[in-house]
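Per reviewer request, we include the raw input and output of the structure prediction for the construct analysed in the revised manuscript.
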Amino acid sequence: MKRHIVLVGLPGAGKTTVGKLVGEKLGTQVIDIDAVVVRKMQMPVARIFAEHGEAKFRAAEAESMRQVVSGQPVVVTPGGGWVAQPGALEETRETCFLVYLKTMATTAAKRSADYGRPLLMSEDPLGKMRELLKDREPFYTQAHATVNADTKSPAALADEVVQLARTHAGW
């Protein structure tokens, strides 16, 4: 049975970039959950956080994820915090193959520096990234597979994810 390919990991791990390449290689659609939420709420993620708070964003994110994974299998790139939300793993384990793009906090912080991510807007973005990793890694490591995203190119990571999709997720 073909399952959705869901990429999880810290902000800056490469979920969006690698996801697009995986989608191209598998000939399937790629759905960025943040983009779905932005369309639904008609405002950027940073503004959603500022005006409505993280809880409202997470609720919209969870609902968007449920809708996406109820359809035909695709590549899905949720935000870095989705997997740590209550019930997220349990709701997707049967229909999705989760791949953890593992990266060090320093690498993720460096890659995220220019994107204005709401949870990283602080005096110490690296410290915040380390805190996110500490809080979220217990969830990330529950993915079906882990690939090291620190030193490989996006193309090499995509090849690895595609191989996993073909051998473990019915692609």
